[in-house]
Design goal:
The protein is an all-alpha fold. About 80% of the residues lie in helices and about 0% in strands. The longest helix is centred in the middle third of the chain and has 31 residues. The chain starts with a helix and ends in an 8-residue tail after the last helix. It is built from 18 helices and no strands.
């Protein structure tokens, strides 16, 4: 199938599954599409078990694997999704929470990676460095999943800002940590740096380079938008910034996710206030919300179909189920330690830690990173465990985080 045919099929299925969810399941839209896609996938597998001569599951598996989920997300959809997410997180709100966001997105990712990696090493017996790779890809909270669920959870604005802001930044940091650890764990792979010195240089290059590139491109786009009063052209400029900036970051070997976040934050704050008319702001806001919703639907649909790439071995599935606990423990460390560090300087109301721990959802980025690993004996186990954790996180945590907030009175927050 051509790229256009595959894209058309995904959009058609996302629309159909979204309608099924709206009419029958009535779950939050993105989660509902994922659930329907999972049910459809399992249905195909059951039909194949009853009528194996039709080879329906094999045909579906060939179709799904022909779509490079890792490339489609990491080098395609992710730039638009991160830009859209950052565009709607205001710097004024983020500035009030910057200490917690910074510590959770840096120290928190490192702590979570170590906790999960060490536990996975003990659980499966795989080499520690390889287990740390798993820890790094499962540690970041996925902004796509988080922002999609936050729209439905109706959390307090300040708490929503902390969760959303942290998810945007720890995604980029986690991706860089993943690249560094892959270079150390699989030194023969040509796509990643190997050796401690090369790994350190890669981290600085990716993280700082991505931030600088995003701010520079965002600022240049803002300066151009100040000279223009044409909403259609200005929307096109933001689209060009998201698309072109992301691909330029990939070409320059700097962090494209961090670039997209920084550019989106700058345009959403400075650009919206000083470079757009009220009419343009309305159109830009509506356009990127629509892009976000559509890509969210397609992404969650693809996550549901990726079940065909999972190895259904009992040991792998058991490791995946146990990894759910590891992921939650790692997330708890990522939230609780920064809170303890900041407690002498700020007052925390009860409930911040449990809400942010349970609300730190995993998503498509973790699956994409697992799929991007070089082929090795541990990849099927890592992919299966990652998929189990992600599905649990999106469905179970995603559907209950709002109830948890209600139980705690929607009041827990930084004062």
């Amino acid at each position: 199938m051509t790229i256009l045919q595959i894209t058309s099929l995904l959009i058609v299925l996302a629309g159909i599954f979204g309608a099924i969810n709206y009419l029958f399941l009535k779950l939050p839209s993105a989660i509902g599409i994922l659930v329907v896609a999972l049910l459809a996938s399992f249905g195909v597998m059951l039909v194949d078990m009853g009528l194996p001569h039709l080879e329906i599951a094999e045909t579906a598996r060939d179709l799904i694997t022909s779509i490079d989920f890792s490339d489609a997300l990491l080098e395609g959809m992710l730039g638009l999704l991160l830009f859209a997410g950052a565009l709607h997180v205001k710097l004024a709100d983020l500035r009030q929470q910057w200490r917690a966001v910074f510590l959770m997105a840096t120290m928190g990712v490192a702590l979570s990676t170590v906790v999960i990696g060490t536990g996975f090493h003990w659980l499966t017996g795989m080499p520690l460095l390889v287990a740390l790779v798993f820890g790094s890809l499962i540690s970041p909270t996925d902004p796509v999943a988080v922002l999609g669920v936050l729209r439905e959870a109706n959390l307090r604005k300040s708490l929503e800002t902390k969760i959303a802001g942290e998810s945007l930044f720890n995604d980029g940091v986690g991706y860089v940590v993943f690249l560094v650890l892959v270079g150390l764990a699989f030194p023969g792979d040509d796509h990643h740096a190997s050796g401690l010195q090369a790994a350190a240089l890669l981290f600085v290059q990716e993280a700082l380079g991505g931030a600088v590139l995003g701010l520079v491109l965002g600022w240049l786009t803002f300066r151009v938008m100040r000279l223009i009063d044409d909403y259609s052209l200005e929307v096109l400029l933001t689209l060009g910034l998201a698309f072109g900036g992301y691909e330029l970051a990939v070409f320059l070997h700097v962090s494209a996710p961090i670039m997209a976040v920084c550019a989106g934050l700058l345009i959403g704050e400075v650009g919206a206030k000083h470079g757009m008319s009220e009419e343009t702001r309305d159109y830009v806001d509506a356009f990127w919300k629509l892009i976000d919703e559509i890509l969210n639907a397609v992404l969650f649909l693809m996550i549901g179909f990726e079940v065909f790439a999972v190895a259904f071995e009992v040991d792998f599935l058991l490791a995946g189920v146990l990894s759910i606990g590891l992921a939650l423990i790692g997330r708890l460390a990522a939230v609780a330690v920064p809170v303890l560090i900041l407690r002498p300087f700020r007052t925390f109301a009860p409930g911040v830690v449990p809400i942010m721990t349970w609300g730190g959802l995993k998503g498509g980025i973790s699956v994409a990173l697992a799929l991007s690993l070089p082929d090795n004996e541990w990849k099927p186990l890592i992919l299966t465990a990652t998929y189990v954790v992600v599905i649990f996180s999106i469905i179970v945590q995603g559907l209950t985080v709002g109830k948890l907030a209600n139980r705690l009175g929607r009041a827990p927050d930084l004062v």
